[in-house]
Amino acid sequence: MEDQTTLVREQHKFDVSSLHRYLSAKAVVSKNDTISIRQYSTGQSNPTFLIQTPFKSFVLRKRPPGELLPGAHKVDREYRVQKALSSVGFPVPQPVVHCTDVEVIGTEFYLMEHVKGRLFRDLRLPGVNPAERTALYVAAVEVLAKLHSLDLTSLNLEGFGRGSGYCRRQVSTWTKQYTLAAHRDIPAMNELSDWLNENSPKNDNEVALVHGDFRLDNLIFHPTEARVIALLDWELSTTGQPLADLAYFLMPHYWPIDLEIISTMGSIKGVEGIPSVDDLLSIYCMCRGITSALPPLNFYLALSLFKMAGIAQV
């Protein structure tokens, strides 16, 4: 992952010596260790940094400086959920320490262990043979099914979200976030918000731990095996309807063939080896031990697109 880093951006610089003193006091690093810091080119919402010592590497996630939207950038929630998942062997980076003292580096932050593996920014997986493409996508869906099968009580996460009624809350939350962040009025977004409000599923009682931003490029795969070793970026995680996560992951299958959101996120239609929606749904249901007769995904796909637009505005 080191090739995804840059020099620390000016607006995100902080006192490295202060961080060093804090981490050495917590016995995370030695007082004699040298520390180098680089910033990941991704992780725009909560700035993310690679912290390297001569013996070990860590990743630091911090709240950004300045005025923030209500409820956003909650790094304490990221730390809590990763700690809970790590305790049951779910593939996440091992959390190390959570710091609420803003005097240390200027904002709240947490530190986790650095996971070395393969990170695919291009959802089409260029340079990967078709058989491995299949295996990588299957591994991703298997991990998602495993996440949704976890027991919230065993994880000590009963109060992590508000439970049932997830879909209506998501529409309300993302409408507010979009409205607060929007730079201009876009009628299509207003129409989509209205449509989502009018078509929210009546049966919205299923409650599972949901990631909120489950994409292939938030997964670290084993260096040589088609196996997920870490699921990243838990900022939007909560409890609620797992089909929202599933639809968000499947969304690129529905993009127009000529769509290029960014150079690495074009349509994956027709890419040899990437399983079809039906195949991925079948694998997901089999792994969760549930019926394959899932409700229609139209609402959840529309919600996914609405969220993506909202995130782009934020």
Mean pLDDT: 90
CATH architecture of the largest domain: Alpha-Beta Complex
Structure classification: alpha+beta
The biggest beta sheet is recorded as:
6 strands, antiparallel
At the fold tier of CATH, the topology name of the largest domain is Aminoglycoside 3'-phosphotransferase, Chain: A, domain 2
**CATH-assigned homologous superfamily of the largest domain:** Aminoglycoside phosphotransferase (APH), C-terminal lobe
Describe the 3D structure.
The protein has 314 residues and is an alpha+beta fold. The chain has 2 domains: 112 residues, Phosphorylase Kinase, domain 1; 196 residues, Aminoglycoside phosphotransferase (APH), C-terminal lobe (Aminoglycoside 3'-phosphotransferase, Chain: A, domain 2, Alpha-Beta Complex). Helices cover 36% and strands 14% of the residues. Strands 1-2-3-4-6-5 form a 6-stranded antiparallel sheet, with helices on one face. Strands 7-9-10 form a 3-stranded antiparallel sheet, covered by helices on one side. A two-stranded antiparallel ribbon has the order 8-11. Helix 5 packs parallel to helix 9 and helix 7 crosses helix 9. The longest helix is centred in the middle third of the chain and has 20 residues. The mean pLDDT is 90.
Question: Would you kindly provide a brief summary of this structure?
Answer:
It is built from nine helices and eleven strands. With 314 residues, it is α+β, with helices and mostly antiparallel strands.
